[in-house]
Amino acid sequence: MPALADDFPGTGNRADWSAALPYYNLGNDYLKQDRYQDAAAKFQEAVSRYQFDPDFYTNLGFAYRKLEDYPNAEAAFKRATELTPNDWMPWSDLANVYLKQNRLPETISTFRRTLKCNPPASEKTAIEQDIADITKIMKMQAGDQPREDEVEKPEPKPSTNNAPRAVQRQLGRTSASHAKTLLKPDVPAPAGRLPASQKPPRSQPLPNQAGQVNKSGEQLKQSGWDYIYK
Q1: Strands annotated E in the chain
Q2: What is the assigned CATH class of domain 14-229?
Q3: Where do the domains of the chain lie?
């Protein structure tokens, strides 16, 4: 498939970008097989050959966070935000990496930066709820008493057919959310990506998890939002 005009990021050398695509696409193949170490190696090879495609860094960050290598995931997502500062998804990814490290003030500030990028309405509502929940946790950790209107109300017992509304939300996204033209391992890479109309959805929020927000920092580290990337 020939490269589409809007596929090449427009910075650097197009030939370098085309040469990097086989490694990026193989990395996506490995992600689908849950081979995260192999995927990270291929994405690293891709970014070593071409440094200006935010998708390379986004999926590199995804592989690292699946490996629970949060410092390297953070670095990759930061680079993606530098390359596409108006795209809400890398900012959301970065916020979640901060959350996995229990860096709550940075999580909130990065979620707020995400909101400035005009995410879809459903994502905006969920992110605003995350900010409110994390703010409550920070107040409790500091020993402050929440106002009456901030106290979490008990949830009614769910029926067998309807799961309770979760205070927490899953923000993980599918591994190939930024896939270019996918390759089989032994097939040469075409210099192009799937047209936008054929690409998978950029964000696939997973079903909500039941449960209340944990009230201590230790509980947060152990279980608070651990479902996000599992």
Answers
A1: none
A2: mainly alpha
A3: 14-229
C-beta separation of 178 from 55 below 8 A: yes
Residue the block writes with tokens 């008990």? 154
Measured at the CA of 50, the angle between CA 49 and CA 54, to 5 degrees, comes to 140
The structure tokens 């020939």 sit at 2
How many angstroms separate the Cα of 192 from the Cα of each of 16, 174, 181, 188, 213? Answer: 12, 21, 6, 12, 44
- What is the per-residue DSSP string for 22-86? HHHHHHHHHHHTT-HHHHHHHHHHHHHH----HHHHHHHHHHHHHTT-HHHHHHHHHHHHHH-TT
Residue whose token pair is 């936008």: 196
pTM value is: 0.65
Q: Compute and round to an integer the Cα radius of gyration of the chain.
A: 19
How many Cβ atoms are within 10 Å of 99's Cβ, its own excluded? 25
Mind listing the pLDDT tens digit for each residue in 125-155? 999 999 999 999 999 988 865 555 554 554 4
